[in-house]
Specification:
The complex is a heterodimer. Chain A is of the alpha/beta class. Chain A has 17 helices and 27 strands. In chain A, the strands form 5 sheets. Chain A has a 12-stranded mixed sheet, with no helix packed on it. A 7-stranded mixed sheet of chain A has the order 21-22-23-24-25-26-27, covered by helices on one side. In chain A, a hairpin with a 2-residue loop joins β19 and β20. Chain A is rod-shaped, with a radius of gyration of 53 Å. Chain A starts with a helix and ends with a helix. Chain B is an all-alpha fold. Chain B folds into 3 domains: 49 residues; 130 residues, no CATH class; 102 residues, no CATH class. Helix content of chain B is 65%, strand content 1%. Chain B is built from 20 helices and 2 strands. A two-stranded antiparallel sheet of chain B has the order 1-2. In chain B, α7 packs antiparallel against α10. The chains are: A alpha/beta, B mainly alpha. Chains A and B meet through α13, α14, α15 and α16 of A and α2, α3, α4, α5 and α7 of B.
């Protein structure tokens, strides 16, 4: 067969050298697995264009059964690989029965189509008439030729029997020779049969393929059930189309280089571990490798005509390259070791595949098995020998869509999770840096970092990449690359998960300015702060109170809670049921008294849990015992002007924080006003224990400094003035007695002469008039 | 008003030296800060209350550190307030770290410097690891010395260092002083071998220091008593001895004797009253919140926390400590 004919053979049945190869329907049946072969060969090499039908059977007496067996093997799911053993599966049994009638029908059908041929199949006799029997025990038995028409004669060569047929026989079956069950241990020398096209050595003990190199017109060679260990001696058989080597001892696929026309290659039941040396078989349509020792499938390139591939009963765990087989329609993978669709994902890319089996694999046990397969292989018409119905396909697509959605969702989730993780890493790094910087300013390295912020992300990036393999197994590379782009610059993270609002990094506090939906805001009951200075949190507490009125549980981690008085700041909230202070980054938790102080200071909340531990009555009493006096002193002994000043500060502070985000509605402020009134009554005697952040406190001190300066001057002036007045006063006091005496003396002297004094007085009166 | 010193000084200096100016300034400052609120209830009332609170020692509550340390009276008041507020912690038997004590101090004075607390802890722990736990009374008495006499102790530390290194401290601190001249050098060689300095030499320096020191000093007689018991001593040994000396504690007058440290019946009574409220806490908060609002506080003031222990003695402390021979004026 010359290559040019390939194209035409695809379109016309009667083309030269074309094997018509159809499924059971409609009219031509070719059961073509290992054991029996049902072939219709149209060869133009026969001048009369007669069709030659070969009926090859390993066991002719049981032909109908065998055919049935084939039928099952092919059409139903009794997949026992080599087809020799019927699967006991009940499903196939029932179909087995139903097909028994079919067989005869099929036979009839075949008869009809092949009537004009020379085929003996037309005979009611099932035995192939062309069969020649050679009865030969072994070499020692000598050329003991028995059988109907064949003589096996010792050749000149010592150990090979020579086969000769009677001329009559030759004329009748000129192109076929069957030497089945002849107990042959070697291939006999076949003389004068150069035009043999079909040669059958089934069920012998042949260990080596020999002496057939002269049969160059051989199309069909059946060596089923022998003891061949190596494929050899076939290099001259260039016309060979069908090579059946099932049930031998072959370990390696080899020496097929010249069999370019090979159409069917049956190697089932051997010991082959690897698919190799087949890539040149571009005309091969059927490859049977069932019951071998394959652990995986690949190296399938070049098998451009392969339509059926049988790989049952191997140990295959993954399949590759199947998408490189453009004509593959049937693939049998039953009874292997495939456990996930990912291992056979190339199947999804094959557009021609219409029939596949996976039964007997771990994958077939999975609940998702059927719809996953159907969804991924839309082209499939049969799965595990059952027709795929529209309904099933629809179901599969629905399920798959759901799954897809779920997957996408989880993908999204994991993306988010990853992003979150990275961001948190980044925030943590920043936080550490900040903490260290606070601790040791003078070190050069630390000073360098803030100067070059562009350097900062680099180590972050590096470390996240190195962290990937351990945590992000299922993430594909695309996801990773997507992640790398996004997170490095994020310095904070805000996350609402159910009823928990998590804030990472001080930047996250700005999110409280956002317009949260009423629903979200109402749902949030837990607020968690991580990597944020507590002092910064304090400033947003009033906002938190407004935006998340239902927040009952506060969590602090890495927030630099250092002193007890910082807890005072929490008292301004509306309500706290639970408080969780993570020891990490909050040294205050190491104190013996912190819990009691919290209980004491926030006693108006009647807290239920601190750091996950239930608050008991005893705790409350202890807290009161320890700090009650402080509160008492603070409330009863604090001078009123101080009280006003302290509470006033608290109020002022609240106003200030409220006014900061400009453009607030006045309504909110008045509401806040109510709150601060409430604050005064809030807890009887501990309102004076409040906390001002360091910055604010320093600011205040700065402010006070000015006033102090003024007061100092003012008092200085005042006191100086007062002391001066005092001095003058004292001086006056000293002078006064003398002055008085002088005055009296002057007066006495003046009125000494009574008459002249009277005259003078009268004169003055008249002058006045 | 007509005490002898009153005539010895110009009025202004006298007022300044007696810290009257400090309080006047502060009063005006406070007034300025809350002028709207205060003008509502009367400026005369305010000044009355202010100076009352100064007398009672409650004026330092929650004030800034610069004010708290401004006068000996403020310091004593703060010590007393600290003792009163956190006596219960000591009573409970808790041993706390320096940092935790510092937190407690900060509850009363938000910007209380860590340095002072550290120094006080060093007295207790003899300059060892400052992360150890201390009992309340140990800390309190050490803190008292450190806080009340902090400037004095700084000078003492300088003197001690000078003595250790063999310098004559007086020549360093007061070059004109003649009292240091006759001191003997030979002791130095031995001194560097042994730990600390010789007690008598040390005392002479301290006496000298007390004479000229314008800040509060412990009464020299008591210092002498402390130093007379030993031959040699180290700086921290000296501080520990000071802190444990109950005479000094009495002279200072802010705290009760060590034996009575946990004893404060008035406050205990108050505490019992508070504790009764705890079991029904949820109810009592709402119930009492109105009752204890601002105006109704005053009645409890009747029992002054300061006076019974202390008032008469205060003058002594001041007079023998700082005033007599100081002729520099504080401005």
């Amino acid at each position: 067969m010359h290559p040019a004919s390939i194209n035409t053979t695809r379109s016309y049945n009667d083309c030269v050298g074309q094997w018509i190869w159809e499924r059971t329907r409609p009219e031509m049946v070719v059961s073509m697995v290992n054991c029996g072969l049902h072939l219709v060969i149209q060869t133009s090499s026969l001048p009369e264009k007669n069709k030659v039908e070969f009926k090859l059977s390993k066991d002719t007496s049981s032909f109908p059964g065998r055919l049935l067996q084939h039928d099952l093997e092919r059409n139903y799911s009794s997949r026992q690989g080599d087809g020799r053993v019927l699967s006991p599966s009940p499903g196939s049994k029932s179909s087995c029965i139903s097909t028994t009638t079919n067989v005869t029908e099929l036979c009839g059908l075949e008869m009809k189509t092949a009537t004009s041929s020379l085929s003996a199949f037309g005979d009611s006799s099932i035995q192939t008439p062309s069969k020649s029997r050679i009865r030969q025990g072994c070499h020692s038995a000598g050329p003991n030729v028995s059988g109907d028409h064949v003589n096996l004669v010792s050749s000149s060569m010592p150990s090979f029997p020579i086969l000769q047929r009677s001329s009559e026989e030759k004329i009748l079956y000129s192109d076929r020779l069957t030497l089945e069950r002849q107990k042959l241990t070697v291939c006999p020398i076949i003389d004068g049969e150069e035009h043999l096209r079909l040669l059958n050595f089934q069920h012998n003990f042949i260990t080596r393929i020999q002496n057939i190199s002269n049969l160059q017109r051989l199309i069909f060679l059946d060596l089923y059930d022998n003891q061949i260990e190596e494929i050899s001696g076939l290099s001259t058989l260039r016309s060979l189309r069908v090579l059946l080597l099932g049930k031998n001892r072959i370990r390696k696929i080899s020496n097929l280089e010249n069999l370019k026309s090979l159409d069917v290659l049956d190697l089932h039941g051997n010991q082959i571990t690897k698919i190799e040396n087949v890539s040149h078989l571009c005309d091969l349509r059927v490859l049977n490798l069932a019951r071998n020792l394959l652990s995986h499938v690949d190296n399938l390139n070049g098998l451009d005509s392969l339509t059926e591939l049988n790989l049952r009963h191997n140990q295959i765990s993954f399949v590759r390259d199947v998408d490189n087989l453009p004509c593959l329609q049937r693939l049998f993978l039953s009874f292997n070791n495939i456990s996930s669709f990912e291992n056979v994902s190339c199947l999804a890319d094959s557009s021609s595949l219409s029939d596949i089996t996976f039964d007997g694999n771990p994958i077939a046990q999975e609940s998702w098995y059927k719809h996953t397969i159907l969804q991924n292989m839309m082209q499939l018409r049969q799965l595990d020998m059952k027709r795929v119905t529209e309904e099933e396909r629809r179901m599969a697509s629905v399920v798959a869509k759901k799954e897809e959605e779920k997957k996408r969702e989880s993908h999204k989730q994991s993306l988010l999770k990853e992003k979150k993780r990275l961001t948190i890493n980044n925030v943590a790094r920043k936080w550490d840096l900040q903490q260290n910087r606070v601790a040791n300013i003078p070190t050069n390295q630390d000073r360098k970092d803030p100067d070059s912020p562009s350097q900062d992300p680099c180590p972050v990036n590096g470390s996240t990449i190195s962290a990937f393999p351990e945590e992000t197994g299922p993430l594909d590379s695309g996801l990773i690359s997507a992640l790398q782009g996004l997170s490095v610059t994020d310095t904070h993270l805000v996350e609402v998960d159910g009823d928990t609002l998590s804030l990472y990094g001080s930047g996250a506090l700005e999110s409280l300015d956002r317009n949260w939906s009423v629903q979200t805001a109402g749902m949030v009951t837990t607020v968690s702060f991580t990597f944020i200075e507590f002092d910064e949190i304090v400033q947003v507490l009033p906002k938190l109170k407004i935006k998340f009125p239902n927040s009952l549980h506060l969590k602090f981690k890495e927030t630099n809670l250092v002193t007890l008085q910082q807890f005072n700041a929490l008292a301004q909230l509306r309500r706290i049921d639970q408080l969780t202070i993570d020891p990490q980054g909050n040294p205050v938790v190491n104190f013996t008294l912190w819990k009691y102080y919290v209980l004491f200071r926030l006693s108006h909340f009647s807290m239920q849990k601190i750091n996950g531990t239930e608050v008991t009555q005893n705790d409350m009493i202890m807290a009161e015992r320890l700090f009650g006096i402080l509160a008492h002193v603070a409330s009863s002994e604090l001078p009123q002007y101080r009280m006003i000043s302290i509470l006033g500060d608290a109020r002022k502070k609240q106003f200030q924080y409220l006014l900061e985000p400009k453009g607030k509605k006045p309504g909110i402020i008045s509401e806040e006003n109510n709150d601060s009134k409430r604050l005064v009554g809030e807890n009887t005697n501990r309102a004076t224990l409040n906390y001002t952040t360091r910055d604010f406190y320093n600011e205040k001190l700065e402010e006070v400094k000015e006033k102090k300066k003024f007061c100092k001057m003012y008092i200085e002036d005042l006191v100086k003035e007062a002391t001066e007045i005092n001095m003058k006063n004292e001086a006056l006091q000293k002078l006064w007695p003398q002055m008085f005496i002088e005055l009296v003396r002057d007066a006495v002297i003046e009125i000494r002469n009574k008459n002249s004094y009277m005259k003078l007085c009268l004169q003055q009166i008249t002058d006045q008039k | 008003m007509l005490s002898p010193e009153r005539l010895a000084l110009p009025d202004y200096e006298y007022l300044a030296q007696r810290h009257v100016l400090t309080y006047m300034e502060d009063a005006v400052c406070q007034l300025l800060e809350n002028k709207e609120d205060i003008s509502q209830y009367g400026i005369a009332r305010f000044f009355t209350e202010y100076f009352n609170s100064v007398c009672q020692g409650t004026h330092i509550l929650f004030r800034e550190f610069s004010f708290i340390q401004a006068t000996p009276h403020n310091r004593a008041s703060f010590l007393r307030a600290f003792w009163r507020c956190f006596r219960t912690v000591g009573k409970n038997g808790d041993l706390l770290t320096m940092k935790e004590y510092h937190c407690l101090l900060q509850l009363l004075c938000p910007d209380f410097p860590l340095e002072l607390t550290q120094k006080a802890a060093r007295i207790v722990l003899m300059d060892d690891a400052t992360d150890c736990l201390m009992s309340f009374s140990d800390f309190l008495f050490a803190f008292q010395i450190q806080f009340y006499y902090s400037e004095f102790l700084e000078s003492v530390a300088a003197i001690y260092q000078d003595l250790l290194s063999g310098k004559n401290p007086n020549t360093v601190i007061v070059p004109t002083s003649s009292s240091g001249q006759h001191r003997q050098r030979p002791a130095l060689g031995e001194a560097s071998m042994l730990e600390g300095v010789e007690a008598s030499l040390f005392y002479q320096c301290l006496e000298n220091l007390c004479d000229r020191h314008k800040y509060s000093c412990p009464p020299p007689a008591l210092v002498k008593e402390v130093l007379s018991n030993v031959q040699r001593l180290t700086f921290y040994g000296f501080l520990v001895a000071l802190s444990k000396h109950h005479g000094i504690n009495q002279a200072l007058g802010a705290l009760p004797d060590k034996g009575d440290l946990m004893h404060d019946p008035a406050m205990d009574e108050e505490l019992e009253r508070l504790l009764v409220q705890v079991p029904g806490l949820v109810n009592s908060v709402t119930a009492s919140s109105e009752a204890s609002c601002l105006p109704s506080r005053t009645p409890s003031r009747v029992a002054s926390p300061w006076r019974p222990l202390h008032h008469s003695r205060k003058v002594d402390v001041e007079s023998d400590g700082s005033t007599e021979e100081t002729d520099e004026s504080e401005t």
